[in-house]
Amino acid sequence: MPLTVVAQYKSPPHFEETLQRKGRHFEVLLGLLKILLADSEAARTTAPEWTGKARWAVELAEAILGGARGPDEPGSARDVS
Q1: Cβ of 69: how many Cβ atoms within 10 Å?
Q2: How many CA atoms lie within 13 A of 38 on its CB side?
Q3: Is residue 72 within 8 Å of 59, Cβ to Cβ?
Q4: Which of 25, 34, 41, 48 is most buried, by the most CB atoms less than 10 A from its CB?
Q5: What is the per-residue DSSP string for 38-51?
Q6: Confidence at 81, pLDDT banded by 50, 70, 90
Q7: Taking 60 as the threshold, does the pLDDT of residue 80 lie above it?
Q8: Which residues does 49 contact at the CB level (< 8 Å), separation at least 6?
Q9: Helix/strand/coil for 18
Q10: What is the average per-residue pLDDT within 11-17?
């Protein structure tokens, strides 16, 4: 029996169906909202990396709704401040 090798190709997220992108991003937005809300309720200042990550998440959500490619995810706190 011959062995068949199938290469797996993961397409960039902006090529996925909009519904899949929305669903996946909803989890990110919910997590960030929980962090920001917890800081607000505890009267804490939100760390700059979380504020920057939230800014990125909003930009990505707008891109998803517009059917466009979103910004790259920040890799570190330096990328989001």
Answers
A1: 13
A2: 8
A3: no
A4: 25
A5: HHHHTTPPPPHHHH
A6: very low
A7: no
A8: 76, 77, 80, 81
A9: helix
A10: 65
Q: Which helix (H) or strand (E) holds 52?
A: helix 48-65
Q: For 27-72, what is each residue's pLDDT tens digit? A: 999 999 999 999 999 999 999 999 999 999 999 999 988 888 889 9
Q: Residues 20, 26, 29, 34: what is their CA dihedral angle, to the nearest 10 degrees? A: -150
Q: What is the pTM of this model?
A: 0.67
Query: Which residue shows structure tokens 């397409």?
Result: 11
The amino acid present at 9, given as its one-letter code, is Y
Residue with tokens 């009267």: 43
